[in-house]
Design a protein that fits this description.
Length: 202
């Protein structure tokens, strides 16, 4: 029995409509390959809105900074009260905080937009696709869209006659034990591997 060492269920990280599938079921894919495209338009709009809020807050900070500099200049001649000066400083601090919050929203929107392109987290062979174009997938209740199994390295488990168990266990205690494997339907394909575990089920 051959078992993949790495197996990953690919799940959506954003909610949206499946627009395109970029692989054939059962085909081999490479790490980073785009597998599925989710409708990105809502996330593009959200990014534009977040960027607009960020630009607005930056413009406000520039205006607040200009007002503060003028007030500081006038304060030297006592034309501006200390209270008014402190109020302008507070506005600059508040606007700076707003910029940081808006920058975080832009970055979050960028991440969501990138997640509309679902990529292979590992290289391997794909399973049956569990969704069709037009289906809505959800990030809040993620169901695996496809499973990828890495086949460059695999585990092979096999039965061992009881009479050989003690000999194998003794050999394993002395060091690494190598195993030669072959396919039942094609004995010419031979693999060399390390015996990692002797199961205790008899």
């Amino acid at each position: 029995n051959i078992v993949a060492i790495s197996s990953v269920d690919v799940v959506p990280q954003v909610t949206g409509t499946v627009q395109a599938v970029h692989f054939q079921q059962g085909s081999e894919v490479k790490e980073g390959d785009v597998l599925i495209s989710i409708d990105a338009r809502p996330y593009e709009a959200a990014l534009k809105q977040a960027q607009g809020e960020l630009d607005k807050s930056k413009a406000m900070l520039a205006d607040n900074d200009a007002q503060l500099r003028r007030a500081q200049s006038l304060a030297r001649d006592d034309f501006v009260s200390k209270q008014a000066l402190e109020s302008l400083k507070a506005q600059v601090g508040q606007t700076t905080g707003t910029i940081q919050a808006n920058q975080g929203r832009v970055e979050a929107a960028q991440i969501d937009l990138e997640r509309c392109s679902i990529k292979a987290p590992i290289g391997g062979v794909t399973s049956w696709l569990k969704v069709d174009i037009g289906n809505v997938v959800s990030a809040t209740n993620p169901t695996p869209l496809v499973t990828i199994r890495a086949m460059d390295q695999v585990y092979v488990d096999f039965d061992l006659a009881e009479k050989f168990i003690d000999d194998v266990r003794t050999a394993m205690s002395k060091g690494t034990l190598r195993v030669r494997t072959s396919l039942v339907d094609d004995p010419s394909i031979v693999g060399d591997a390390e015996l990692l575990l002797l199961d205790n089920q008899v």
